[in-house]
Design brief:
Helix 9 runs parallel beside helix 10. With about 525 residues, the protein is an alpha/beta fold. The chain is elongated. Strand 1, helix 1 and strand 2 form a beta-alpha-beta unit. The protein folds into three domains: about 280 residues, Aldolase class I (TIM Barrel), CATH 3.20.20; about 80 residues, no CATH class; about 130 residues, Alpha-isopropylmalate synthase LeuA, regulatory domain (Double Stranded RNA Binding Domain, 2-Layer Sandwich), CATH 3.30.160.270. Helices cover about 40% and strands about 20% of the residues.
């Protein structure tokens, strides 16, 4: 493999804060945008397109605050359009706003499709060319670097290639530093993109850098971006996690590692690719969207292995069922335990949780028990602590931390106020403990009563928190008689995170089973080795 320092470079232009903001369900605050921009700068993208200062006050405030920040890797980019047909650039408020944003770089879009010019802009083809060239010239005269986005390029190219090319030449004459071909409607396929980019590079010449801006309406956003790079594009636009209008934009979390690891092209500064998983999770958290676990490279399931034959093979060689070392992008191998698992899954998972040298007989028993439990409604894929307890309970000499003798739950309503109360009777170390507690619901009341019982012997329960409580109704055709599955996520305020599961026809029974597993798992000293970072 050639020296990485000598690898050809591809500019990464991130538009999570602009195009990504058009995702249904996303609404960034100014603080959100600044936090994400800082994270993208740490990752090392070349450009961060941060908004349209001429369209809303929020973006104006963002650019004011961004000017006070120190950016290590990225250039903050203001986005806008060519001048309107009836105005000069100097008299168009939205074009002037690009200058007032105070960024070194501006990105402007103009029409490349004759159909768009006639039907949407409702102006002449010649006027559109003047709008493009004059806007770029004026911005360059104001000291700005200009990246030109050729909107609807691929549609325009297929309708009238000669005119589409004229629009690009107008931007080049104006002084645009990069010409970006936009698949605005997202309807192109990789071989169409590759052919069109090759045509443009031939016509513009090697001295004019060409870029790609792909949408994912055919599911080909990433493939189209890579096809453009194969044809010579050296500037790629996209978003973290593929956020964007309709079906989203090309997902940089897949584009970047494909460029770096598959095409041997430098896309980020040396040493920053391992932060990609962290950045993907961070952006999802700030935008308040659930991460896509199945996302290539950075999804939590990207290197998760469930089939027993896969796990057995990977124990012999780590590359048996992984195309890269997940640590390269900041991810990690995970072994998932379910009814499809074999003994290798159980042994691997037990080792992660502090149970080493599990013998063949024990692992075989655990596999059979998991299959029986999942038939009853359990699911252990996301409840690794409950798997560890299955192993522990089959280990010779196992003694439970506590035994449930009795519980009772009550929910009362007095006028507008409702109250839940739970009583629990446990055997802890041969002593009977009976506690009661109130809560804002039966689950909270059960949790408080259990804490009361455990706290005298295990004061660390004060540090344990339930971070999520999920209920899923199985075989819902049975109505209120259906099986209920409860999944609880936990952490102890330090580095330990774990998940437990319970299931049954009674939601309180299912809740109790998941609660009891959660406390027993972390309070038993042996678990401490395996819980860190889970």
């Amino acid at each position: 493999m050639p020296n990485k320092a000598a690898r050809p470079a591809v500019e990464i232009f991130d538009t999570t804060l602009r195009d990504g903001a058009q995702t249904e369900g996303i609404s960034y605050s100014v603080d959100d945008k600044l936090r994400i921009a800082r994270k993208l700068d740490e990752l090392g993208v070349a450009f961060i397109e941060s908004g349209w200062p001429g369209s809303n006050p929020k973006d104006v405030i963002f650019f004011e605050q961004a000017r006070t920040e120190s950016w290590r890797h990225a250039k903050i980019v203001a986005f806008g359009a060519t001048r309107r047909a009836s105005l000069t650039p100097a008299n168009d408020p939205s074009v002037r706003a690009l200058v007032e944003a105070g960024t070194e770089v501006c990105a402007i879009f103009g029409k490349s499709s004759a159909l768009q010019v006639k039907k949407v802009l409702r102006t002449t083809l010649e006027e559109n060319l003047k709008m493009i060239e004059e806007t770029v010239v004026w911005l360059r005269g104001q000291g700005k670097r200009v990246i030109y986005d050729a909107e609807h390029f691929f549609d325009g190219y297929h309708q009238d290639a000669a005119y589409a090319l004229q629009t690009l030449l107008a931007a080049v004459r104006g002084g645009a530093e990069t010409i970006v071909l936009c698949d605005t409607n997202g309807g192109s396929l990789p071989w169409q993109v590759e052919a069109a980019v090759s045509y443009v590079r031939q016509k513009l010449g090697a001295t004019v850098p060409v870029g790609i801006h792909a949408h994912d309406d055919t599911g080909c956003g990433v493939a189209n971006s890579l096809a453009a790079v194969r044809a010579g594009a050296r500037h790629v636009q996209g978003t973290i996690n593929g956020y964007g209008e309709r079906c989203g934009n090309a997902n940089l979390c897949a584009v970047i590692p494909n460029l770096e690891l598959k095409l041997n092209l430098r896309a980020l500064p040396a040493g920053t690719l391992p932060y990609l998983h962290e950045v993907a999770r961070f952006v999802a958290e700030v935008t308040n969207l659930t991460p896509n676990d199945q996302m290539a490279y950075v999804g939590d399931s990207a290197f998760a292995h469930k089939a027993g034959v896969h796990v057995a093979a990977m124990q012999r060689h780590p590359d048996a069922y992984q195309h890269i070392n997940p640590a390269v992008v900041g991810n990690a191998t995970r072994v998932v335990v379910s009814e499809l698992s074999g003994r290798a899954n159980v042994v691997s998972k037990a080792g992660e949780r502090g149970f080493e040298n599990v013998d063949a007989a024990t692992s075989a028993k655990v596999v059979e028990l998991i299959k029986a439990k999942e038939h009853e409604g359990y699911s252990y894929e996301a409840a690794e602590a409950s798997v560890a307890l299955l192993v522990r309970r089959l280990t010779p000499g196992y003694q439970p931390l506590f035994k449930l003798l009795d519980y009772r739950g009550m929910v009362n309503r007095h006028g507008d106020r409702s109250m839940a109360e739970a009583t629990i009777k446990l055997n802890i170390g041969g002593h009977e403990v009976h506690t009661a507690a109130e809560g804002n619901g039966p689950v909270n009341a059960f949790d408080q009563a259990l804490r009361k019982a455990l706290q005298p012997l295990f004061p660390q329960v004060n540090d344990i928190s339930l971070t999520d409580y999920k209920v899923r109704i199985l075989n819902s055709d049975l109505g209120t008689a259906a099986i209920t599955r409860v999944l609880i996520d936990w952490h102890d305020g330090a580095v330990h995170r774990w998940s437990t599961v319970g299931a049954g026809s009674n939601i309180l029974d299912a809740t109790w089973l998941a609660l009891a597993d959660g406390y027993e798992y972390i309070l038993t000293p042996q678990s401490k080795r395996g819980a860190a970072g889970a």
